[in-house]
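Progress note, project year one: complex with zinc ion.
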Amino acid sequence: MRPPVAEGVGGWRVHLRTLHANVYLLDGPEGRLIVDAGALPFAPQFARLLRAFRPDALLVTHRHVDHTSGAFLAARRGLPVLAHPAEHPFLAGERHDLPLRVPGLGERVSRVHPKVPPQSLRGVSPGEQVHGWTVLHLPGHTAGQLGLMRDGVLIAGDAVVGSRDGAHLPRPVYSADHRGAEETLRHVAELDLRLVLPGHGPPLTPEQVRRRARRGEVNS
Ligand SMILES: [Zn+2]
Ligand SMILES: [Zn+2]
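Model obtained:
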C-alpha cells in the first residue's frame, strides 16, 4: 500500500485513492471508514477497495455523481451510507440535480447513474461524531455538503479543490450557491488545521486555503 497522506490523527491513518474524485480510506482504533465512492467508470476499482479495506461505513461528502457512483456497491455489501439528509433524495434517485452547462443534461446524466436504496442511507448532522471524527457542514457547493475533521485534519469534499498551484473553489457553474461556497471557504480558512484533504487534487496546507480565501474576499 502507498504511504498514508495523514497519520497520527488520533491513532488514525488516512490513505488516498483517486477514482476521478478523491476517495479516502480512514483506519484507526475505533474502526474503518471510507469517504466518497468515486465516479462510475471506476466502480470496479471501488468494489475491489471495499473488498480489500472492509470498512464499517461509507460517508459521502455530497450528492455529485463523481463522488457517489460506487455507493450502491457499499449498500449491496450491507454498509450504511452516511450523508447529510439534504443529499438523501438525490442519492436515492428521487430527485436529480447535477450542475452541467447544457440545460437538462445534468438530470439525464444523473438518471443513468446507479442509486442507493433509501434503507441504506443514514443521516448524519453537523457536530455529530462518526468513529471519533467530527462532522462539519460545508454548504454552498451543495446544500448538504459535509466534511470530517479530527486532530487538525479536514476531509473537505468539494469545499476546496487542490491543484499544483494551490487551493481553488469548484467553478461557479458546478456549485449550487457559489457565494455560499466562498463563505464556507472563509470558515474553513479560520479553522485550526494542519492538513486539508480536498475532493479533487493533492492535499493542501492551511496556508494555501487561507490564500484562496483572502483572494475571494478581494473579488467579492
Ligand atoms: Zn461536487
Ligand atoms: Zn467533485
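Residues 206-219 form the longest helix (14 residues).
The pocket of zinc ion (ligand 1) is lined by residues 62, 64, 141, 158 (CB under 6 Å).
No further modelling is planned for this target in the current period.
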